[in-house]
Specification:
globular; mainly alpha; 5 helices; 75% helix; 107 residues
């Protein structure tokens, strides 16, 4: 679990620190990886989806500012929700693949 967490965080940071001028790399891959990172923490796909929707809806309140805004974002977007869904689905597919190969246990 820890290895997956570190790899996901490193990949997410890479997408932010090395912009390529492509919105899929610069923005949405990071969002998808953010959702996958949440999966490693909460360990249930439906719970990760709830957390991501809650964070996105929290942005509608206008409360996230400063460091909190940097961590959680400040603007609601349905495209972010789609990216989160892709991240959770990708994490689930990868977990299932690794479980079938006997590398990790199923969630």
């Amino acid at each position: 679990m820890l290895v997956r967490f570190v790899v996901i965080v490193a990949a997410g940071l890479l997408t932010r620190l090395v912009p390529l001028g492509n919105i899929l790399w610069d923005k949405y891959l990071g969002d998808a990886l953010y959702a996958a990172m949440v999966c490693t923490i909460v360990r249930r796909y439906w719970a990760a989806a709830l957390v991501m929707v809650a964070i996105e809806c929290f942005q509608l309140t206008g409360i996230p500012r400063g460091l909190l805004g940097r961590l959680l974002g400040t603007t609601f977007s349905f495209l972010d929700l789609a990216a989160y869904a892709v991240g959770i689905a990708g994490y689930a597919a990868t977990s299932e693949y690794l479980a079938r190969r006997g590398r990790v246990r199923r969630q």
